[in-house]
Write a structure and sequence with these properties.
alpha/beta, seven-stranded parallel beta sheet, Rossmann fold, 14 helices
Length: 383
């Protein structure tokens, strides 16, 4: 039986949750059943990893990029269209906002048999200028009219999409992120990790893993760290990631005299090792879909404090498996972190219940792959 030609389209292979999840999915697919192609931007920190996946044909575009650029966007559309036609693609599965629009438009024009889009947080949100919000919402509504299935990672995103009149209920499917929990069981590396990162072996360590961009609010993390330092002098902080707000972050760290308390690592590929060094993981995002970093922290046995955004409440039960605070409420976040830093037994209880949640099977990589392949088969791509 001939293989099904399956194309994934994602804007850029940076070190983000959506990108890592997609590569995990591609790496686990049945290559006897699917001939797998990936169309993405020319550069990206995970491009090398993608290129090493056996059975994957990688296409790096000169034109696909995140910022809106009418000329490049048209050229990227044409490039995707031609790629679909040339390789006789039967299923087009898009990920991320920009690729989700261009990829689906090209798939429709090229008459691909099945068109699927996974939402990793909607392209439209309350933190955009009104005209940009309206543009993305209009495009999402239009593309939904010819999308066979809209996959979301949380009920929050499903409800938001339907409230915004994007698609119909029967088009939606919820497939949670899947991770290999065993990769994060490295607490025996705690001392080694702290020495490697330049952290005090006996310090109380608070960390975050996120891109330095407005969505992730890295400056809020620094301000919270400054408040904690005044009450818990032996607390240390680590920020994993990079992005366009890095210069502002460095300037704020210097202004608040936190050079000795906050370590900036840049992007890292050894996230399990990083997590093993932490006592508390913090996420201060302004908006999210379902942050995979929280799932990884919970699997790694680290207590979590996060803003109550997106589908995170579907993973963390406030006061039981972690603490949640309103978006932008730095004082509440600081109070919760300080409480956990002072109460080791509370941290341990959060960790125990979090691990039970992660071991329930809902967030297994194998389950994510199985559910995705079932959708391909249901839509006629696996028969």
């Amino acid at each position: 039986m001939s293989k099904i030609n399956l194309l994934y389209v994602i804007t850029k292979l940076e070190l983000g949750g959506a990108q890592r999840q997609l590569l995990s999915l591609i790496g686990s697919l049945d290559k006897e059943k699917y001939a797998v192609f990936l169309f993405t931007a020319k550069d990206g920190l995970l491009t090398g990893e993608a290129g090493s996946i056996k059975g994957l044909t990688l296409k790096r575009s000169r034109f696909l990029e995140r910022p809106i650029n009418i000329l490049k966007d048209i050229l990227a559309f044409v490039e995707i269209y031609n790629f679909i036609r040339k390789n006789k693609i039967q299923i087009v599965h898009t990920h991320s906002s920009k690729a989700g629009i261009l990829g689906r438009l090209a798939a429709k024009a090229a008459k691909a048999g099945v068109i699927i889009h996974t939402v990793h947080g909607w392209s439209f949100h309350d933190y955009q200028p009104r005209i940009i919000n309206y543009l993305y919402l209009t495009l999402e509504r239009f593309c939904a009219t010819f999308t066979n299935r809209i996959i979301v990672v949380s009920n929050f995103d499903k409800d938001k999409g339907l409230r915004s009149l994007v698609g119909r209920p029967k088009q939606y499917a919820i497939i949670r992120y899947g991770i290999n929990s065993n990769e994060f069981k490295v607490q025996d590396k705690r001392i080694v990790a702290r020495r490697f990162l330049g952290l005090n072996e006996t310090a109380l360590v608070v960390g975050t893993i996120a891109c330095f961009k407005p969505q992730k609010s890295p400056l809020d993390f620094i301000k919270i760290a400054n408040g904690i330092k005044k009450h818990i002098p032996n607390a240390e902080f680590i920020m994993v990631g990079d992005g366009r707000l890095r210069k502002k972050a460095c300037a704020l760290i210097k202004k608040l005299d936190l050079d000795r308390q906050i370590i900036l690592t840049g992007w890292r590929n050894d996230i399990p090792l990083i997590l093993s060094a932490l006592d508390i993981f913090v996420l201060v995002s302004s908006w999210e879909g379902l942050p995979i970093a929280v799932l990884e922290a919970m699997s790694a046995g680290v207590a979590v404090v996060a803003t109550d955004t997106g589908g995170i409440r579907e993973v963390i039960e406030d006061g039981k498996t972690g603490y949640l605070a309103e978006v932008g409420d730095r004082q509440c976040l600081q109070n919760r972190i300080e409480e956990l830093l002072r109460d080791g037994r509370k941290r341990d209880e959060f960790v125990r219940l979090s691990e039970e949640r992660m071991n329930s099977g809902e967030f297994l990589l194998s389950r994510m792959v199985k559910d995705t392949e079932e959708i391909y088969s249901e839509l006629g791509g696996g028969s």
